[in-house]
Amino acid sequence: MIARAVLFDLDDTLFDHRGCSRDALLSVQKAHDALGAMGLEDLERAHSRVLEELHADVMLGRVPLEQARQERFRRLMAMSGGTPVEEAVARIAAEYRDRYKQVRRAVRGARDLLAALSTRARIAIVSNNLFDEQQEKLQECGLAPFVETLVVSERVGVSKPDPAIFVAALDALQVRAEDTVMVGDSWSADIAGAQAAGIRPIWFNPEGATAPGDQAVAELRSLEPAAAVAAMILAGGATS
After folding, report:
1. How far apart, in whole angstroms, are the C-alpha atoms of residue 96 and residue 102?
2. Is residue 201 helix, strand or coil?
3. N or C end: fewer C-beta atoms under 10 angstroms in the chain?
């Protein structure tokens, strides 16, 4: 059976969030001794952990976005052994944000893949993030013309892996779960969530991680070449 619709995660599936974040962290670390006590890899891990901790509060409207951004670097400065000073916290948060925006980029092959799929299937993004933030990424990376709808946790009120956010995407595209494929990098959010919604998942796994419990799920290690990857996605992960 050929899929009529394809749902994609955005960050670290089509958009290179991890790479952009690394570039921005390296930039502020070089400029500020307050973040220099940790190696870059340790700083990356700590940043990712703190970002995840604060994310739910932002999505639920409990903490304003800019406040959360500053709190992230307040915690990172403390983890690096420094004493967070509010002026420095605000400056580092702003510099990180500016650099992140400057280096925004798609995952290699993402644009060509969406172009190949868009003539044969309806495409939606399903993301645990803010609408304006994700829309900017799609536009700046040249992905927006191929995406029919952007479904985000901020507007739906629930986050992946809750099946409700996937159902919202199906409703927006007016397709059935059995006619749809979900492609994402997060096992817990994208793969488990799609399965709970009755949607066939494909795991974008460029690092070659091991599936939890050795579950048999179709995988992609790369988004290239576009024609072959598009055919595999439309076949629901089946290969010839």
Report:
1. 10
2. strand
3. C
38-65: pLDDT as tens digits: 999 999 999 999 999 998 888 878 899 9
- Distance from C-alpha of 131 to C-alpha of 30, rounded to nearest angstrom: 31
Rounded distance between C-alpha atoms, residue 145 and residue 41, angstroms: 35
**104: helix, coil or strand?**
coil
Q: State the greatest distance between any 2 C-alpha atoms of the chain, in Å, as a whole number.
A: 59
**Given this model, what pLDDT does residue 216 score?**
84
Cα 125 from Cα 190, distance rounded (Å): 11
User: Could you give the CA distance from residue 12 to residue 20 in angstroms, rounded to a whole number?
Assistant: 10
Residue pair 194/184 in contact by the 8 Å Cβ criterion: yes
User: Please, what sign has the CA dihedral across residues 25, 30, 35, 36?
Assistant: positive
- Contact between 46 and 38 (Cβ < 8 Å): yes
* pLDDT (average), residues 161-180: 98
- 107-139 core/surface letters (b: 16 or more CB in 10 A; e: else): bebbbbbbebbbeebbbbbbbbbbeeebeebbe
Angle of the 65-79 helix axis to the 86-102 helix axis, nearest 10: 110
pLDDT band at 239; cut points 50, 70, 90: low
Task: Tokens for 230, please give them.
Answer: 């598009």
In whole angstroms, give the CA distance from residue 5 to residue 205.
Answer: 21
pLDDT of residue 237: 86
- End-to-end C-alpha distance for the chain, whole angstroms: 13
Q: What share of the chain is helix, strand, coil (3-state, %, to 5)?
A: 55, 10, 30
Q: What tokens were used for 215?
A: 């579950």
Q: What is the model's pTM? A: 0.95
